[in-house]
Write a structure and sequence with these properties.
Strand order of the largest sheet: 4-5-3-2-6-7-8-9
Distance between the termini: 17 Å
CATH topology of the largest domain: Rossmann fold
CATH architecture of the largest domain: 3-Layer(aba) Sandwich
Strand content: 15-25%
Structural class: alpha/beta
CATH class of the largest domain: Alpha Beta
CATH superfamily of the largest domain: Glycogen Phosphorylase B
């Protein structure tokens, strides 16, 4: 059968529970928006249907708005069903009405998540109106992540998600590691393809100077800064990083650990208990402005004596300054499909150390673009120390890493590949 040559723009709908600028959800928010922007640059008409999670009173609800050329509608949602998942199920009557009315006019639908109502209802209407849809699990089907609160997910999977996945036109994985592990774990028969997340490299023009982080946090002057940037939760391996840092700080008195990101699962409380048991002095700048923290604020001495700092969520230029002002970025994750912060750090010329459970770790290791470790605090301690004391190694990693991002994770490259997949799935070809 000969493929049709399209004459009009492809109409593409992304349906997700939360969207840019809901930065609390970390890397997936950036990656979704980058992909949508890139598709527009490739001549695709893109719309996004989402909810206003983390954006209450910040965005207009049930009205279209334009963000970087992407047409986005934020729907209000009912929290009555939020017991289904830890981040909310996002049930929305207004979203149902919009999908029922508008799904027929789209050529293809993208569902970049799994455990929520937005995926369930969009997949249902796609099947009803015979519209192809792609699911991007973004690591949510990894065995480690799946088995976290597993009894709920297994029930949900067998009742709902398995059929949604089975009937999808394709599953999009962000790394070979994710594709292999998920297919083996769930024995999925659905067509799949591998497409990494992409960076909009234009956002990294005129990067902050290294000194800008010190201006923001004067107590970092003269320090070697070890950076973690991401959601603070159990799977990120922060307990391993803190143990390694404790050993390092016993040998090097000019170290500071900067932990940047929102707190999920109230995991920061557990980390503070670990640090107090190790007699690590810390400060939490993310909560100093709340009444409760003013009454019960514990920084374990002032900022000059603390050697670990929780900054809370940083966005925009402050986020970039965290990368450029740090000496090493560490992600010792127990499970990670991709890791947008890894790529951002690499392009900001901050050397990277990651665990071998990060989906792209084998690719970066082969390219000599990152140091890859086992999940072990003794090994991580050795690798951080080696990197901090070896400027030649630092320069080699920085050079290889930046080129690797340009060649493999540039938004223009990724969005063009995604466009090719879309055309293939809807039975069309380029002119």
């Amino acid at each position: 059968m000969t493929k049709m040559v399209y004459k009009k723009k492809i109409s593409f709908l992304c349906v997700c529970p939360c969207y840019y600028p809901a930065f609390e959800h970390g890397g997936p928010i950036y990656s979704m928006h980058n992909l949508d922007k890139g598709l527009i640059n490739n001549g695709v008409d893109v719309e996004v249907y989402t909810t206003n999670q983390f954006l209450s009173n910040k965005v207009k609800v049930n009205n279209k708005t334009i963000i970087d050329g992407v047409t986005v509608t934020y729907f209000d949602y009912n929290r009555a069903f939020d017991f289904f998942t830890s981040n909310g199920w996002h049930f929305s009557w207004s979203l149902i009405s919009a999908l029922k009315k508008n799904i027929p006019r789209f050529d293809i639908v993208h569902l970049p998540t799994i455990w929520n109502f937005t995926t369930v209802i969009a997949a249902y209407f796609c099947r009803k109106y015979n519209k192809p849809y792609i699911i991007s699990p973004h690591g949510q089907l990894y065995p480690y992540t799946f088995n976290h609160k597993g009894w709920k997910k297994w029930i949900y999977y067998h009742l709902i998600s398995r059929y949604d996945l089975k009937m999808a036109k394709a599953i999009r994985y962000t790394s070979r590691d994710e594709a292999i592990k998920v297919d083996k774990f769930l024995n999925l028969k659905t067509n799949s393809f591998i497409l990494p997340n992409g960076l909009d490299l234009s956002e990294f023009e005129n990067l902050p100077k290294k000194e800008e982080l010190v201006k923001q946090y004067p107590f970092l002057k003269g320090k070697k800064v070890i950076l973690f940037l991401g959601r603070i939760c159990s799977k990120k391996g922060l307990n391993i990083l803190i143990d390694s840092f404790n050993r390092l700080s016993g040998e090097m008195d000019n170290l500071h650990l900067l932990i940047v990101g929102p707190d999920f699962e109230n995991y920061k409380h557990k980390l503070k208990i670990i640090m107090r048991s190790l007699r690590i002095k810390y400060q939490d700048l993310s909560s100093k402005n709340t009444l409760k923290s003013r009454l019960n604020y514990r920084s374990d001495l002032d900022s000059k004596k603390a050697n670990v700092t929780f900054t809370g969520l940083l966005t925009g230029r402050q986020r970039l300054a965290a990368f450029t002002g740090s000496d090493v970025f560490v992600l010792e994750s127990y499970s990670e499909n991709f890791g947008m912060a890894i790529c951002e750090s690499m392009f900001c010329e901050t050397p990277v150390i990651i665990s071998d459970q990060v989906g792209i770790s084998s690719d970066l290791k082969c390219a000599n673009a990152a140091i890859v470790t086992k999940i072990d605090s003794s090994i991580l301690y050795q690798k951080i120390k080696l990197l901090l004391e070896d400027p030649v190694l630092q320069k080699r990693l920085i050079s290889n890493a930046k080129k690797y991002v340009e060649d493999h994770y540039c938004m223009d490259v990724i969005s063009s590949l995604m466009n090719d997949h879309i055309l293939r799935f809807i039975g069309k070809s380029r002119k």
